[in-house]
Please model this.
Amino acid sequence: MATTAPVHVRTTVPAAPRAHKAPRLRDLGPNWYASVMGTAIIANAGATLPYRIPGQRAVCELLWALSAVALAVLLAARAGHWRHHRDRARAHLLDPAVAPFYGCLAMALLAVGAGTLIVGKDLIGTGAAIAVDTVLFTAGTAVGLVMAVVVPYLMVVRHRVEASQASPVWLLPVVSPMVSAAVGPLLVPHLPAGQPREALLLACYAMFGVSLLAVLLLLPLVFGRLITHGPLPLALTPALFLVLGPLGQSTTAVNQLADVAPGAVDAPYAGALGAFAVVYGVPVMGFALLWLALATAMLVRAAREGMGFAMTWWALTFPVGTCVTGAAGLARHTGLDAFAWLAAALFLGLVTAWVLAAVHTLRGLFAGRLLPAA
Model:
């Protein structure tokens, strides 16, 4: 009698989906640093306004502290994102819509560092404030300069973009050196007289040039896209305000640099730099107001068509804040009350935009819509 051995059939069990650690961090992109920038700029701009009201300084100190805590939390969260979701982090760098936001990391570091020396010194002392700002300025400048090269490089060799995809977001990585140029002068008076002060002053002017010329290359692409392809998608419409960033920040930079130039360079150059602050700043501020009117009109149009909340709303904060500090600088150097009033009016708009963005962000976080668990 023949016998047959039992046949063992190997069955393949489908692998269970890989469980990600820290699932809420999976969608945490570098664009979240914009919330830190938007909070810090209120403290910085509010402390430099030409007008003073009771409690103004205390509110600025509170907002600086809030921005510092937010920066620390976000740095830790983004470190967790790179550790547990490295695939998504790398995908962000290769995504032309997300990669430019890596410039926000540098600007968040720089904005909080500047706030530390402007208002934070009242809480932690001048010595500690100088030390903190030195660290954050150095780190922010290094990251900003790296991203000003890396992101455009990726856009050329790895990203595949078309003219119809041009967006104000493309400006973010090349604007961060301008932020360094604007906040670097805060450290100049705390350096030894002579070569150290002059070196930092001229380094800030060099970064001013790096950013300005790069913006002049990209801005025509952005405006050309609007003219030839029409309005941006509704959720991206607030990004139009990003154009105000290099305009307001460059105006701030030339005025801040002119303030400290007399203690860093010889008299003929210091006087010329003071004149340059006005000759450059006034026309650029004029163009900033023109773009502000255009962007506001486009924002109203998008709101009427049903624009909902997105993290792009934070684009309404930091760029407008740079225009506040730019107008305040022109008020100092020209003595015109018109610029002082302009700074105050822009600051009111900044505060309104910050409240709206902050409330909707917190609501989205608590509801799980912005950072879902899965």
